Amino acid sequence: MHVLKKFSPKEQEFIVNNGILLLKQCKLFNTITINQDENAELKIQKNKNNKLLSEMEQIEDKLNEKREKEIREIKNKYDIEVNRLEGALKRKDRSIENIEERTINKKDRENVEIKGMYETRIEDLGKIIEKKDKMIENIANNFDISIKTALNSKNEELNEFKSLLKDKENEIIRIKQIHESNNKGKMLESEVLNECINYNNKTNNIWKIIDTSKLAHKGDIQFLHKYAGKKFLIDLKNYSSSVQKIEIEKIKSDILNKDNDVDGGILISTNKISGKIDWEEEDIENKKLIYISHFKISDVGMIFRELNRLIDITKIKLEENNKEDLINHNVESYKKIKKMIIELNSEIKSKKELHKKLSGDDIELYIQNNSKKKINYDKIENGYKKEGRRSKFYSKYKNENGENVIKYFGSEKRKEIWDGELKKNKIGV
Asked: Domain total for the chain?
């Protein structure tokens, strides 16, 4: 055994295996008849061989025992690792279940809030109607020929409140539609996000675009300029009706939120934004808020034009270590934009030729002749006292005090009824 210790386990195994093979050959050799002297010498050799065989068998047993021990240790490590992975998998499954449960709870809370808003508005409208009904009842009890004109005025006021009620009902319907159109809004957010990423890549990738649609009070997308360090948030609305004042107040609050640390924002709607023209700009505490109505996915370039305008690149303070990079980026961006302009001019030319072929007219004149003219309210109200909310239905007349009055109506039918009453009472329209 001490002779084998100086060899490695593999070498020991080789020596033992070859010794066993030699021993078997020796045993075979001992079966041959030889003389007595040689037999005595062979017996001595046989004893040595038997002793060597015994030692080799002991070594083989130890090697087998060592292999079995190593196999058991590897198996134990494998079992421990399997148990660890199974435990981690169970913890991950529990985490996913917790996230799903929190998402469901959030949606339930939102549904409860919307239902509460709906019930509160209905209750307020009921009180208004009840109050006006009592006013009409009091007037009816004291009705007299001498107050006929006043009664007509109250009837008109009732009509105004009915119109208000109708507006409120429409607003309630709009709130429900907003809630029901969440999925449609998410589809728009995803589509605009992808288009913005593609457009940014085409214009040299100077904006870092962050998807914040799943975060509360962060807008749907945030844009960070890589060189100016300025950040803006964008909120997208895909409602079937106009975006109301409450949504405008929300984005203002998000822009002014110190945690967001943004320099301004853009509110984009596929429909109209209440009280705003198609493009409008507003200052809120030295920060810019842009309103864009009637947005189409093909107008994604408009978003970047507004962002670049807000950045005001001439005011960027450049450091020497990034000035060269910005110049290179600017040149590459210019080349790409110029290529896009060439392609757009080619498409515009194609559209003009197609319109000329189909109608025989110039497309620019066609658009100009068919565009809707906006009402200049300041001009038509000049010298008149205004009554009601502005609309395209209105009447001008002199009241009993001789004042010039312009009165607006919610529909053409209501305007005609009013005009009829004025003629009946011989008041000039």
From this structure: 5
